[in-house]
Amino acid sequence: MKLVEGITYSHEHVKIDLSGVKNNEDCNLNVFDETVEEFKELYTKGVRNIIEVTNRGIGRDVEYIKAVAKETDLNILCSTGYYKSPFFPKEVYDLSSKQLAKIMIDEIINGIEDSGVRAEVIGEIGTSQNSIEEEEKKVFIAGALAHVETGKAIITHTTLGKLGLEQIDLLKSHGMNIEKLIISHVDLTGDLDYILRLIDKGANVAFDTIGKENYQPDGVRIDMLKEICKRGLSDKVLMSMDITRKSHLKGRGGIGYSYLLDNFIPRLIENGVSAEDIKTITEKNIVTILN
Ligand SMILES: [Zn+2]
């Protein structure tokens, strides 16, 4: 499936269930009508593509995604892979990196289950906050092998933005083309020098926790983006909301998916980021990375 011309949200979950491990029903995002309503609004504001980074073991539901796409006309790309410890399904503990890569490659080439939908991305595969755990390492090696075989991009999860450099080293040592890597949640670090180092290594960086001000004020995100754009590096940045909870949705008191367009981008413009840089970040970069 190709991208449609327009805005892409690069890191989202249409449906995800982390409620078991987190022991919190709010983390079971499964409210079809409310999601459809918000996605229809996104469409009117120019969004055309959603990269859905839910994968094996955390409630990925391709038939549900297909139904949302049909109702909203949004192009929703699906993912393969495994999230992070302790959210892994049993197969991650039982199988080798090679065997896990084979499962990913099968979902990329032949499709996910019997849905007829192929995985377009390997993601979000993640690491813990202070170390890459054994099973996480296994999944990263599997992801790199699947990337080498299929050319598909990898979207990683970092915990609070940490260990991006270690992720690059690990993937690179197994043959990955780092230009095809998107490191997520880097905005949570608030550390511009660190983010510039990731870019310097060739990786793309995602500011994809926009509006989560309990973790990081948006003012810090804006200051960092302004500086990155000033250095001519807007072609290495992506943006998204990473909505994962029912309470993130508008109807439940949350900021909702459209906050990026309604609130955050206008503030970037007020702070001197050019419309061209915003178009590069929200529309163009993902095309280069996924091609
Ligand atoms: Zn994540």
UniProtKB/TrEMBL annotation:
Q: Which Pfam families does the UniProt record give? A: PTE
Recorded hits in PROSITE patterns, A to Z, give: PHOSPHOTRIESTERASE_2 (PS51347)
Keywords (A to Z) from UniProt: Hydrolase, Metal-binding
The UniProt family comment states: Belongs to the metallo-dependent hydrolases superfamily. Phosphotriesterase family.
**Entry protein name:** Phosphotriesterase-related protein
The opening ranks of the lineage are: Bacteria, Bacillati, Bacillota, Clostridia, Eubacteriales
